[in-house]
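lol so apparently i was supposed to do this last week
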Amino acid sequence: MAPIEFNKRRILFLVAGILAFFIVFHGLSVLDSDSIRDVTAHISLPGIQSPTGHKTPPEFESDADDIWDFDSESSPVAQSNSSTTEPKPAQHFDLHPIAQLMQAADDRFRAYESGISTSFRQTVEKYRSRYGRHPPPGFKDWYKFARERNVFNIDDFEQIMDDLRPFWAANPSELRTHAAHMGEDPKFGVAVIHIRNHTIVQADNPSWRSETMETVISKFVEFLPDMDIPMNRLDQPRVVVPWEDMQEMLQKEYETRTMPPEVMDTFSVGQPNLLDMTIQDRAQDNSTRLDDGWFFAPGKQYMDIAAKACPPESPARSNMTIAEADMLYKESIAGFVTNFNLSSDLCTVGPTVQNLHGLLYSASSIIASHKLVPIFGECKVNVNSDILFPANMYYRHDDRYDYDPSEDLDWRDKQDNIIWRGVTSGGVQLENNWQTMHRQRLVQLFNGTHVSRSGTEVKVLTEKLDEPEATNTTYELYDRFHPSRFADEHSDIGFVEAWGCVPNCAFYDTVFSWKPQVSLTAQFRSKYLIDVDGHSFSGRWRAFLQSKSLGFKATIFREWHDSRLLAWRHFVPVDNRYDDLYALLTYFIGYGDSKQDNVMDGEELNPQVYIAPHEREAQKLARQGREWANKVLRRDDIEVYMFRLLLEYGRIIDDRRDFIGYSGDGSELDKFDAGDEHGKGWSWGIGGWKT
Ligand SMILES: *[C@@H]1O[C@H](CO)[C@@H](O)[C@H](O)[C@H]1NC(C)=O
Ligand SMILES: *[C@@H]1O[C@H](CO)[C@@H](O)[C@H](O)[C@H]1NC(C)=O
Ligand SMILES: *[C@@H]1O[C@H](CO)[C@@H](O)[C@H](O)[C@H]1NC(C)=O
Ligand SMILES: *[C@@H]1O[C@H](CO)[C@@H](O)[C@H](O)[C@H]1NC(C)=O
Ligand SMILES: *[C@@H]1O[C@H](CO)[C@@H](O)[C@H](O)[C@H]1NC(C)=O
Ligand SMILES: *[C@@H]1O[C@H](CO)[C@@H](O)[C@H](O)[C@H]1NC(C)=O
Ligand SMILES: *[C@@H]1O[C@H](CO)[C@@H](O)[C@H](O)[C@H]1NC(C)=O
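anyway here it is w/ 2-acetamido-2-deoxy-beta-D-glucopyranose bound
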């Protein structure tokens, strides 16, 4: 959101525009991949750097090629000989927008992978060139810690840098003062963990969340300076800094970038304004407090708070129509999400979804501040300045959220349907407001009885039939699709219980029936999984990715791993309105018996619609998501992320922050990188690719 950030965004729009033009011009000739790859290879995605002159190592190329091909683990459906023996020209292209989106994501992914540092020297150099500062003290120890855990991309901690950037505009001692006392009044919902002399000595206002965080921190606490770490105890995010203030802060951060030739590779000791641990009775602590600016706004329109943090030109603060805002992140025919980042950006979609998501109009608790105070949180929406850390649910072992392979079948043995189970959470529900909440909308949309009675019509893309001689398959919009039968046959979506209603949930009696609970692992018997928000982010997401099923995702929340996950490469992005869901599902599952004859059970339903199944694409995405989650979302990755985060935080709250850090050239770890210290001649390859 800085001038810099916003320019980035403009460039992105421009590139998107050029790309759109290119597509139109070339009639969606996406599988003619070489030409489009040339175009996309130069796009620098926000948060994803394009290759910076590093040549792709040859061994990596061959590894990467394996990825595109199907392995034999579970044999693909569309690969049989029969389809290729038909006497048709060799070149046949399926010109569906999804094919094009997947192709573009593959290209971006290649670019993401190809520039990864393979040594400490490169890592340090990249750090300096990206951020204009030396790495923080302890960076060497962190680097070794990360390598020993086989981190895949040693460079991608973009989220941390983005989150902390504005704090360079704040005074370190004021940050320490805020942090020290934030847990003193429990009604503000903040826990504070205190680290002294390389040990966690105390937690104020603790909860299971802070206990889990302590477990993570204990893995590397010996490298951390004294600090107080305030942690959000609520489900909902906290800090919203007005856009104009944020611009000034980011500008200041930019101006204060500095790299003195020699800096100290240690943190300051004995800094003032940390919490005085010698005072047992907090009431006796007479040290200065600063106002954190908390205010309570449960159930209020969140966009009234959030819009302040948006750029004036953005849909949230301008009179842009919904259709205009859609063009920023949606494909124009079926409305597929082309930019997942923007699809969850409240400055872009806020006006569209403000009455369609529980957090935005009926949050059970909101304690917000317009001041830039340091508070660590598991999730936020894009307008928040909370400091993200990996959600505790992803670290602790909890059956409800942990991947368990016991019932995860091979793709071909899975059911051809989409499943979702949950409770009616998401916001405070009243008799006249539940209808537009995000979970309730989903359940209603896949209730065959309901959509049939209400005459619901949705958009799908159907194969074009009018060009029998055409060698390519092309598609057109059909926006009067009656989804009831498809929903009955291919979805299993429902609530297991009601929860969170005022005065009680009796108003659901005639609307929902409760479906049986299905354990997380039993859900993997379905090919397709959909993940939507609850009160806050969904803790199941990692397990969904790890499974052999394909995850669909709609959310307004940001999490620690966002810069690592690529829509259309690792999962299927879904608009928060769900207006693309049937078009997505009919693409993967297929619809209709044949082009001519489309009678189901004697009853004609959507006879105009035919779309062949695209199982192979679904399976490919599922496998890519699974492989990737097992590389970059491991508990090890959480430890590495957290260690780096707290080093960066430790420096930002240090009075001497411009004079501490690592100023060497990285050569100290040449031996380590060469593997000598391990007594075996390994090299890191591409960030632990070889595990
Ligand atoms: C089919 O699509 C390819 C790739 O976009 C294109 O080169 C070719 O001209 C198309 N063929 C026809 C008959 O339109
Ligand atoms: C596939 O088709 C080719 C040529 O049409 C044929 O030679 C080959 O035996 C077939 N393979 C299988 C597995 O049917
Ligand atoms: C820090 O801990 C070490 C050993 O754990 C101890 O020797 C030292 O005195 C402690 N320092 C302070 C300032 O408490
Ligand atoms: C804080 O002030 C109170 C009242 O002036 C005094 O009794 C108390 O000793 C002070 N606490 C400390 C730790 O100095
Ligand atoms: C938005 O409002 C301004 C004046 O307030 C007007 O000039 C402009 O045309 C409007 N834009 C749209 C897209 O309605
Ligand atoms: C589907 O809708 C019908 C009619 O509104 C309702 O009776 C039924 O309980 C709903 N089913 C589920 C699973 O919610
Ligand atoms: C999303 O976009 C914003 C603004 O362009 C950018 O700062 C951020 O890094 C992006 N996030 C990801 C995960 O790409």
